[in-house]
Structure formats: C-alpha cells, structure tokens
Amino acid sequence: MDTRAALEPSPLLLDPVPSLASVDIVIPVLNEERALPGCVRTLLHRLDGFPLPWRVTIVDNGSTDATWRVAGALAGEFAEVHARRIQVKGRGAALRAAWQASPADIVAYMDVDLSTDLDALFPLLAAVASGHSEIAIGTRLAHGSRTRRSLRREIVSRGYNALLRYGFGARFSDAQCGFKAVRADVARPLLARVEDDSWFFDTELLLLAEHNGLRVHEVPVDWIEDADSRVQVVRTAIDDLKGLARVARTMARGGAGVEVARREPAPAHPDPVLSPRVVTSAAITSFAAIGTVSAVLYALLYLPLRGLWPPVPANLGALVLTCLCTLVANRRWAPGLRAAMRLRAPALVLATYVLTTLAVLTVPPWAGLAAEVSAIVTTYCLLTLLRFAALDRLVLARTRN
C-alpha cells in the first residue's frame, strides 16, 4: 500500500470530512527504545483492513537513547510508518510539528505505552471522519470507561477536570487522555494559538476549540496506568494550573478567537455560549481586588491554624473560612451570583482544597513554614484566576446579553 500517494493533501472543505478522508496517527516518543517496536507493530496489526487511507508517524523529540534508530528501522520496514526527529522536548511540541506538516485530512495521536485500549481507535476516528465532530477524544471518566490507576492520580485527574468543567464550562470530561483525533484544517489554526509545548497542550487545544464553537466528541476508553510512566503528577498539575491561569487571562481579554472552517449555514456547535466573550475592565478590577484580599486573608488564617494542626487540616480550615468571606464579597459584586455559586461553589472549593493540599505536601519538612505558605498561596492565586473565568461565564456573560 503506497500511503504517500494515498495521503496527498485534499482541498480545504467547509462541509463534513468526506468518507475517504485520510488519517495520520502520530506517536510522540522520548527515550522509548524498548516500548516503541511493540507499540507500532500492535497498532499496525489493529489498522489492518481499516477502510480509510492511513499512515503512522513516529516523532522523536529529543531522545538520548536508541529511540531514533529504532524509529528509523521501523520506517524502513513498513511503508505505512514514517519517522521524524525534532530537538524540542514535550508532547505538545511533537504533536505540533507532526500535525502542521501532515498531508492527511485527519490527524490523531496516541501514547506509546498503549495505556489506552485500541478497541476505541475506530470509534474515535469515525466521529471525525463522518463529519459529526471536529475533534474526538478518549475519556477515562465517562460511563462505560474502565480505568485502573493509583488513588493519587485519580484524585488529581478528577479535581483538575472539575476545575475545567466549573471554571471554564468545559463540556468534555477528560482533557489529558493521550488519545485524540482532529480535523487537520481545524487543527492548524488552533495550533497557531496554542502556546504550550508540554502536557498542557491537550487542555489548551480543547479549551480553545470549545471557546470557538467547535464540537468535541468523547469516546469512553479502557485505560491502565503505565507503571513506567514519565509523568510527574504533582509537577504536571502545578504547570497545568499556570497554563489555566494564562488561558483564563487570554479569554478575559478577548484574545482567544480563532478563524476555523465551520459547516454552513449553522455553526459547528449550536450553543452560542461558546462564542468568544469580552470582559469589562471594571469586572477585572473588582475581582482582582477581592482575589488579592482573599489571598492575604488565606495566608493570615493558615499561619495560626498551622501552629495548632498539621498542614492538611490547617489548610482545610483556612480555605473554608476564606471561601466563606469571598462568597459574601462576590455576592455584592455581581447580581445573580448567589444562585450560580450555590450550585458550583462546593465543587470549586473541593478542587481548590485538593490542589492546595497537594502543593503544601510537596514542600519538604526542612523548608519551613514560609515555604508552606508560599506554596499554598501561589496555588490559591492561580485558582482565583480560574474562579474569575467561572464567574464571567456564569454571571457576567448572562448580564451582558
């Protein structure tokens, strides 16, 4: 099968992707010389008989072992396999390079560790190839999914996705599952806006997609945690919080709009709430003032409570008292906020407690109380920006319409 001929670029389409759309499945790798051969052979076996033209692209982004030699050997052995190498580390950087250069109509990716069961691959690609959705993602948190992973990773994942759901109004349930497919003509303008080159890449792409009215389809997957995973859960969670704060700031300034191909005459997503919004400077100033005061209050409450209790209960006490004061202040600031926050405040407080507790637990015992306070207040400030995104979506947008 000559996949090079089969994957000649097709014209840009405003209609749903045709039935003979071509597919490029990207596998980003970093020092995966042992896992790569088995992954590629398993994937090729599963794709045997797949009705659409396809190819597999291995992207080595900065490996220092024999991964690049293994990738080259696989590309030489199988006509359907292509290999390229970049020097920038990060899953996002690998996907950006491969997706931008791909001649396929649909670009996808999967993790090399095969944590996600490949039974979900065809439903994933079919959702995009049929024209039903612009993006399809695997989810480990939907009904029908089966997942085996550590308790710590489960708590972090659910807390993180709760922040996306209640902070940004995200309709997808699992941002970070390494199993996604996107229409190529939609992916390229989104990639021009995505700034992250690491693990936050997926979240930023999906938030921008929904913000611009694109439809994200979810496929329940079976997923088993890789014991040799390179993901540093706590460090990644902190980096993701910084990324969320940046995206919230960009959206608040009205800078997240992207020109993408949509089906006409109706928008790709029927819900107008996903269109870009502009936040007034008065709203930003008011919330910034409340956020600053609440962060100072949080630190002042944590200090005496920490003298009585260990870090975890002291953090809970300081956070509950701070959130009660913040809710009272925000009710005065935005009309109609009471009903919205009554429904969503518990989830936001829970997610904030989980992430600030993780932050304080990463501080070594010898670092002292000042380091503890710095860790939790920094995390709290980042989460405050996300609460602003929640208030804008739930209240300010409603009052501006």
From TrEMBL:
<feature type="transmembrane region" description="Helical">
    <location>
        <begin position="343"/>
        <end position="363"/>
    </location>
</feature>
<protein>
    <submittedName>
        <fullName>Glycosyltransferase</fullName>
        <ecNumber>2.4.-.-</ecNumber>
    </submittedName>
</protein>
<keyword id="KW-1133">Transmembrane helix</keyword>
<feature type="transmembrane region" description="Helical">
    <location>
        <begin position="278"/>
        <end position="300"/>
    </location>
</feature>
<dbReference type="GO" id="GO:0016757">
    <property type="term" value="F:glycosyltransferase activity"/>
</dbReference>
<dbReference type="Pfam" id="PF00535">
    <property type="entry name" value="Glycos_transf_2"/>
</dbReference>
<keyword id="KW-0328">Glycosyltransferase</keyword>
<keyword id="KW-0812">Transmembrane</keyword>
<feature type="transmembrane region" description="Helical">
    <location>
        <begin position="369"/>
        <end position="390"/>
    </location>
</feature>
<feature type="transmembrane region" description="Helical">
    <location>
        <begin position="312"/>
        <end position="331"/>
    </location>
</feature>
<feature type="domain" description="Glycosyltransferase 2-like">
    <location>
        <begin position="25"/>
        <end position="187"/>
    </location>
</feature>
<keyword id="KW-0808">Transferase</keyword>
<dbReference type="InterPro" id="IPR029044">
    <property type="entry name" value="Nucleotide-diphossugar_trans"/>
</dbReference>
<keyword id="KW-0472">Membrane</keyword>
<dbReference type="InterPro" id="IPR001173">
    <property type="entry name" value="Glyco_trans_2-like"/>
</dbReference>
